[in-house]
Amino acid sequence: MSGFAPPRIDTDPNHRFPWYVRLFLANQRRRYGRELEPARLWGRTPWVFAALSLLYGALDRRRSPIEPALRSLVTVRVSQINWCAFCIDINSANCLKRGISDAQLAALPEFEQADCFDARTKAALAYAEAMTRSDAGVDDATMARLKQHFNDDAVIELTALVAFQNLSSKFNAALGVQAQGFCHAPPGQRRG
């Protein structure tokens, strides 16, 4: 997947967004130094954008039963499978901010064989992978493995996170949204 393909839909730099989308974009400029292209695309459907933003905020809250580093690892793995350059980029940067090492990011495509992940992390990643790969799906063994490490509420939350990341990464990949240079991804990270 080339990082230099043009996006499939451009948003005019002078596009007039509703006030609440403009507030969100202003916050992105403060936080990231620029607006994120997916937000500009979603912002063209303002009510969907608002609902999506609320859902993401609920999933990435401080009191989530899934710790921040694991949430970020899961989102990177789902993004890798879905070939979303933007999501791999920004979520890898979040991983590094949340204490995940470069070595762990590089090992993520082969997480089952990697010594740098514990059994709990591997169970969550295996579940995320099974949910994302529609040719496989979640079987009883995968669910049993997950439930050894997570209670039912945490499983529900993890399921919602994986579903959200599939929505996000498939949206961005389909529209050709490219990485914006948040993280220099290890070479192995680009593989599904």
From the structure above, extract its key features.
mainly alpha, AhpD-like, 2 domains, single chain
Walk me through this protein's architecture:
- The chain has two domains: 41 residues, no CATH class; 123 residues, AhpD-like (Up-down Bundle), CATH 1.20.1290.
- It is globular, with a radius of gyration of 17 Å.
- The protein has 192 residues and is mainly alpha-helical.
What topology emerges from the helices and strands here?
Blueprint: H1 19-32, H2 37-42, H3 46-59, H4 68-81, H5 85-97, H6 102-107, H7 119-132, H8 140-147, H9 152-174
Structurally, how many domains make up the residues?
2
Give the end-to-end Cα distance, rounded to a whole number of Å. Answer: 11 Å
Residue fraction in strands? under 5%
CATH architectural type of the largest domain: Up-down Bundle
Report the total helices: 9
Assembly of the depicted chains: single chain
Low-confidence stretches: 186-191
Order of helices and strands: HHHHHHHHH
Cα-based radius of gyration, to the nearest Å: 17 Å
**SSE-based structural type:** mainly alpha
User: What is the mean predicted local confidence, pLDDT?
Assistant: 92
Estimated helix fraction:
55-70%
CATH class label of the largest domain? Mainly Alpha
State the CATH topology of the largest domain. AhpD-like
Shape: globular
CATH superfamily of the largest domain: AhpD-like
The biggest beta sheet is recorded as: none
- Give me the count of strands: 0
